[in-house]
Specification:
Blueprint: H1 3-34, E1 36-41, E2 46-47, E3 65-73, E4 77-84, E5 94-101, E6 107-116, E7 119-126, E8 131-137, E9 143-151, E10 159-165, E11 174-181, E12 184-193, E13 196-197, E14 202-206, E15 214-219, E16 224-229, E17 234-238, E18 241-247, E19 255-262, E20 268-275, H2 277-280, E21 289-294, H3 299-307, H4 317-330, H5 335-338, H6 342-345, H7 350-369, H8 374-413, H9 421-433, H10 438-450, H11 454-470, H12 489-493, H13 507-510, E22 523-526, E23 533-535, E24 541-543, E25 549-551, E26 566-567, E27 574-575, H14 584-590
Helix pairs in contact: 3-4, 4-7, 7-8, 8-9, 8-10, 9-10, 9-11, 10-11
Length: about 600
């Protein structure tokens, strides 16, 4: 072969080799971009300002709320994905919201904290040990404002976990970031105003709380830090103190602890147990076990929980369970709940009322199971039944008043339709049957006038005249908006009021309003089966003249006749499904995700 031929072959091989190298470089670059190293959901929902169109589907989405998913990639970037809610499994709508170049090696942990409207701080930890925080603006597009280095030492100790928390003893500008590296916990103090750091961040290292590497971190908003290690040891410490305490929980033999979770109010801890490498060799299927541990046990612990200023009563599931467990063993209501009087409960939040209702319901079940002192038990049962009826009516009155007020405002704004007069009249009728006072008389009158309902106006006038003749009003002051009911629950639970009235004969004085027997029940709906009238006797159900029973929507209070209704997972109340012709006002009501009566989730 001639020399020129060798040169051509060599040149061709070099060219092909270079082409393969370029292809491999592109492949590696794409792999680093696509391969994720950590995930983090932002804790808030955001309102989009853009219309998202769907190809060959339902057109433009009316509800443009979205959640944000942060994804750390091997390239060192963090990608932000907008996920439209509610999420549909078969048609999830996802958009790329932005990319943040962190300038770090592989991000290993992320944590977001919202500090202002649509703005906040994103903490990023990497495998080489660096910890940075980025000030981000989410709308109209995700963009960075500033970057700060909290831990600049590349000690090659991977940042295992990051979590923001807030201490109730400090001002709003002071934030705490908890980081886990190895078997140590680092607590950073960050002072930021308008997402700009005003002081140099400080930190303290808590060492020696675990013998093995930390495998889980969970923080509560009262400043408590829960950590677990590979061997299953669980430690709790406070952001304001270096004192740690161990939680007693044994790990199943042959399993290692790979994560920890904590309920909203720190009542329960969940440990995620996975089989060790040695155990996996002898198992056909590798099952993950979850162990729940109750760390609020005993009467003293429950009383401290109820008297705490830091309890999130709107996330009351764990509080209710703690009360239930305590009552099943002590056979009595916790002391703070025994001191709550009817007068002290007026004006309290829905969560406090829901907890009282739950506790009294459980206590009635426990009392029915006891066979001793049957006569005294019956008297106590009647007392609790009177309290439950008062609480139920009081909650409904506040819900109906708030919803009727929103209907009147929607009528002024033009967001209601003529069909919405049915739920408005049902709410007005029910308020009149329960006895209206001066706080809602004007609102009920406006509702009847807006619907041109002469019979309703006559009943309001008759009730007003009768109340003036009797020289008294109903004792229940209704709040027109539920947002005003955010009083400090500790003041309610720690009330020095005496125990509720023990005489059953006081029931009529305890109830917020006594049903007006002279009020003739009006009919606003017809039975979908037999077309007979349905009177407004209850807000929980409606019964026609033929005896057909229909559940009522706990939001609009009309009967639920469709098959696609949703139900509350706790109290089983239903909510209707909006139809294509529903008004904007009704759609906004029916899109609720939580039951307004007990704060449980709809499903």
């Amino acid at each position: 072969m001639q020399k020129t031929d060798w040169q051509n072959v060599s040149r061709l091989g070099t060219k092909n080799c270079g082409s393969h190298k370029n292809q491999y470089s592109v492949f590696k670059q794409r792999t680093e971009i696509l391969a994720f190293t950590c995930l983090h959901w932002f804790s808030q929902l955001y309102q989009s300002r853009e219309d998202v169109s769907l190809n060959n589907t339902e057109g433009i989405i009316n509800d443009k709320k979205f959640a944000v998913l942060g994804v750390g990639n091997r390239s060192g970037a963090v990608m932000f994905w907008k996920v439209m809610v509610p999420v549909k499994v078969d048609k999830a709508i996802v958009q790329l919201g932005g990319i943040l170049n962190t300038g770090q090696s592989w991000p290993s942990s992320l944590s977001w904290k919202e500090t202002n409207l649509n703005q906040g701080l994103l903490a990023v930890g990497s495998t080489d040990g660096l910890i940075k925080i980025f000030s981000l603006k989410l709308l109209p597009s995700i963009s960075g404002i500033a970057e700060y280095v909290l831990w600049g030492d590349k000690d090659d100790m991977q940042v295992l976990y990051l979590d923001w928390l807030h201490s109730w003893q400090t001002c709003d500008d002071l934030h705490y970031l908890v980081a886990c590296k190895g078997s140590s916990v680092i607590v950073f103090s960050v002072v930021a105003k308008n997402d700009i750091l005003t002081q140099k961040p400080s930190y303290k290292i808590i060492q020696g709380i675990h013998k093995m590497p930390i495998t889980g971190l969970a923080c509560t908003q009262n400043g408590t830090i829960h950590t677990c290690s590979l061997d299953g040891s669980v430690q709790t410490t406070s952001v304001d103190s270096a004192i740690t305490s161990a939680v007693s929980c044994a790990v199943k033999k042959g399993f290692t602890c790979s994560g920890i979770g904590v309920s909203a109010n720190g009542v329960f801890i969940a440990l995620f147990l996975s089989p060790s490498n040695h155990t996996q060799q002898y198992l056909e299927s590798h099952q993950i076990h979850i162990r729940f541990v109750n760390i609020v046990w005993g009467s003293n612990s429950v009383e401290r929980l109820l008297n705490s200023n830091e309890v999130q009563l709107d996330r009351k599931w764990d509080v209710c369970k703690a009360i239930q467990h305590n009552m099943y063993y002590s056979k009595k209501l916790p002391e703070p709940l025994q001191l709550v009087s009817t007068g002290a409960m007026e004006g309290s939040s829905f969560a406090v009322l829901a907890i009282m209702q739950y506790a009294l319901t459980v206590m009635r079940v426990i009392s029915q199971q006891q066979e001793d002192d049957l006569a005294g038990n019956q008297v106590q049962q009647l007392k609790w039944a009177a309290q439950l009826e008062w609480i139920r009516d009081y909650i409904y009155k506040r819900l109906v008043s708030a919803t009727l007020n929103s209907w009147l405002e929607g009528r002024k704004a033009g967001t209601v339709s003529p069909l919405d007069s049915v739920p408005a009249l049902i709410m007005c009728d029910w308020l009149v049957t329960k006895g209206i006072d001066s706080a809602v008389t004007d609102m009920v009158t406006q509702g009847y006038e807006a619907c041109n309902d002469i019979e309703g106006l006559k009943k309001v006038l008759s009730h007003t005249v009768k109340s003036q003749e009797n020289g008294k009003e109903s004792s229940s002051g209704l709040l027109l908006q539920t947002g005003k009911a955010t009083e400090n629950q500790s003041v309610i639970f720690q009330s020095n009021a005496k125990a509720v009235k023990s005489q059953v004969s006081d029931k009529d004085q305890t109830l917020a309003g006594v049903t007006d027997e002279s009020f003739t029940l009006l009919t606003r709906e017809q039975c979908p089966l037999c077309q007979t009238a349905i009177a407004v006797e209850s807000l929980e159900y409606g019964i026609c003249l033929s005896g057909h029973r229909w559940p009522r929507c706990c939001v609009s209070f009309v009967i639920c006749a469709e098959l696609t209704l949703r139900r509350c997972q706790d109290c089983n109340r239903c909510v209707s499904t909006p139809s294509p012709g529903s008004s904007p006002w009704l759609r906004s009501l029916l899109k609720m995700t939580k039951c307004p009566f007990c704060l449980g989730f709809f499903h």
